[in-house]
Amino acid sequence: MDPNTEATLHALLTGLPVASLGTLHEGAPFVSMVPVVPAPDGAGFLIHVSGLAQHTRDLRADARASLMLVVPMEEGQNPLALPRVTVQGVAEEIPRDSRRHDQAAAAYLARFPEAETTLGLGDFSFFLIRPASGRLVLGFGRALSLDAAQIQGSLRAIP
């Protein structure tokens, strides 16, 4: 991957705070919005979700998930030209009484300090979405497939 493509991938994976989350709901696709944070160790993406939310129930029933991160559209821009990355992976719930939970909470609060309230609510849980594969689109007709190692390497890269 050339340096410009790698830099764009890194910016998409680490710089965008909101993602579309795709889960399976009774075997059918279900998409919602979630705040997202790269895991501190580069293993994947952290989400903090309520047990009351459909996507959380879906992840507990079937851990397969997908995240889509898209650069915001500017006035007059062709939506098909928006840089974006879709990551397919498996979600793993992080036990509340674990060191990993504390690390996830610290990373999450660093990006979303206003989330301190929800961290104290008992029905919220952290999930780590570990990438398995992905698709990077750099604009209309410019796309490439990604494997887990490329995604995790880009998450760990220092800009």
Question: Could you give a short description of this structure?
Answer:
The protein has 159 residues and is of the alpha+beta class. The chain has five helices and eight strands; from the N terminus they run αββββαββααββα.
Commentary on this structure:
- This protein has 159 residues and is of the alpha+beta class.
- Strands 1, 2, 3, 4, 5, 6, 7 and 8 form an eight-stranded antiparallel sheet that branches.
- The chain has helices at residues 3-15, 54-61, 99-111, 116-119, 148-156; strands at residues 18-25, 28-35, 37-38, 45-50, 64-70, 84-93, 124-139, 142-147.
- It is globular, with a radius of gyration of 16 Å.
List the helices and strands and how they pair.
Elements: H1 3-15, E1 18-25, E2 28-35, E3 37-38, E4 45-50, H2 54-61, E5 64-70, E6 84-93, H3 99-111, H4 116-119, E7 124-139, E8 142-147, H5 148-156
Antiparallel strand pairs: 1-2, 1-5, 3-4, 4-7, 5-6, 6-7, 7-8
